[in-house]
Each structure stands twice: as C-alpha cells, then as structure tokens.
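Table S5 (text form). Sequence records supplied for joint modeling of the two-component complex.
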Amino acid sequence: MAEFRAAVRQRDGAAVVDLHGQIDRAASGPLAAAYADAAAQTPGAIVLNFEGVDYINSTGIALIVGLLARARAEHRAIGACGLSDHYREIFEITRLSDFMGIYADEDSAAAAPAAAANTGRQS
Amino acid sequence: MFGFPRLAKLAAEGKSGQELIDLLLNELAKFTGPDWEQEDDITLVTLRRSGAGPAATASTALTEFELASEPGNERIAIDRVAAAVGDLELPPARLERLKTAVGEAVMNAIEHGNHNRPELPVGVRVTRSGAELSVRVTDQGGDRPVLQAERPDLEAKLAGEQSPRGWGLFLIESMVDELRTSADGRQHAVELIVRLEGVDNHG
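The corresponding structure-token record, covering 326 residues in total, follows.
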C-alpha cells in the first residue's frame, strides 16, 4: 500500500499538484498542505494530477469535496487529470465532474483556459 | 382490454427492472389514451428468474474470512475478495466496482459497526449462486439502524452546509447491482450482489 504524498509545481500559470499513493483518511493532512502550497504559488487554477493514485475511498472523496469547496469559496478553478477509468466513473457518479474539469492528461488540463477548468467538460 | 397476451409480448422484448416498468406504463398510456380516467392503483413488480435448475443454483462458497476491526484492513478484504472471484473473469470495470464496494462495506463495518475495536471481527463471505455473486460483510453492530443509501447533496456540501463526508453507502449502492442490508440485534450485515450475466457461467 503506497503512502500518500503530494508535490506542487507550476505550469503555464496554474499550479499542478502531483498526487501519489492512496487517497484515504491518512491523506487528509498532506492533501490540505499541498492545496495551501498550490494556492500560495498562484492565484490561478489548480490541477490535481491523479496519475500516481491507485486508490480513493469515500473518505478520499470527502477530502476532494473539501478542497473543491475551499476553491469555490476562493473563486478558484480546479481541474483533475490522470484519473483511471474507474475513478473517472466515480467522479461522474458523485457529480464531482459537474464542478471540476476532468481531463485525460496534464497536457489537456494545462491547455484548457483556467475559466473552463470548472465547467465539468471532458477533453 | 390490455390483456395478458399483450403484456407477455412486451415482457418478452428483453427489458427488465425499471426499464420494463417504464415500457409497460408507456404502452398502457398509449392504449388508454389521454382521456381515460384511472379508476384504481397500478402496481407493477418485476421478478428475474435465473433459468438454472436446483443443482446450478446451489450456493458455492468462494471464500470466507474474518478481519480485525483496524483502519486499513479494508484493503486486505479487497485483495482477498478480488482473488476469490478471479476465476469468474469479471470484466475489469465490474471488478473495480466490486472492489470499491467491498472496501466501503468493510470500512463501514470497522468504523460504524465495530467502532474500530480490533477485537471485534468483521466477517466476509463470498458465495456464488447460479448467476449471482454475493459478498456478505458482517459486523457486531446489530443494534444500529439499517440505513438506506441516499444520494449526497453535493451542492450543500460545497456550500459548507453539510459535512463533505457521507459517501460510503451511496458509493456501495452505485457500484453493485443490488445492496441488501439487515440486522438481527447482534450482527449487522451488508450483502453486495453482482449479476453474472455475460460472464462465463460454468462451475
């Protein structure tokens, strides 16, 4: 079981948060810290890169909902990329995809205008 | 009169469950026309017959085990259930859904049923009966209410009006064909049902 970790970098005016491991209760602190780091680095969009994530449970979904709520309060767009087909389906079932842009990969997310990152449209 | 022959013909079109009910109601509306005044209730129940004989519908245990109620043990349950159903060759997407449902059911049992008390076991039993796969997860919280899954209100959660949590039961129900819950005062049970139509049915 891969321990969760997150790293923040900038790309094209957005902050990309590379997520690794499993997003469950143990990810709460590191995920919140990564978001704060990303928000401090840019006033623009934040892209969550799930390419390195192998497991998300309902607590992890709640953590992502919390991040999304915080971003919306800050009028900040959030996008997601690198989701497996299964977790993309879960983002659709939970309607997370209605409130954040879902992109196949980081290039697609980076190419999307920041304003469109929360339209829920898929690339 | 709408009649049984018409009903049988519609039922033979291959639809099932809610789709069949919707079809029947639509056809009934067409039959009666807009000016008909309904005089009594309409109750429709759909049943599915497996088509297999008694021998084929006998339940076969694929695995049965217990886990200590410690956070994280749901991952062990996921791996063991996935291994137990390996021979069924479920399509990858269905297997992933089942794994998520198992993880959530076991996590609920650990947290809400056994309150993270390691000495209280969570039981997992995987059986196959004809074209139905069942994963039954039990905990020792049989006195807690049997909850029904409800769709969480994401807007309220995003607005901070509700806790961001509360996705477990909804996820479970969304991932399997049927969710059965029960309690007997001692044990609480969640049964995850996956229909195996289209999956190799031998064995």
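Note: Chain A touches chain B at residues 1, 25, 55, 57-59, 61-63, 65-66, 68-69, 72-73, 85-86, 89-90, 93-96, 98-99 (CB under 8 Å).
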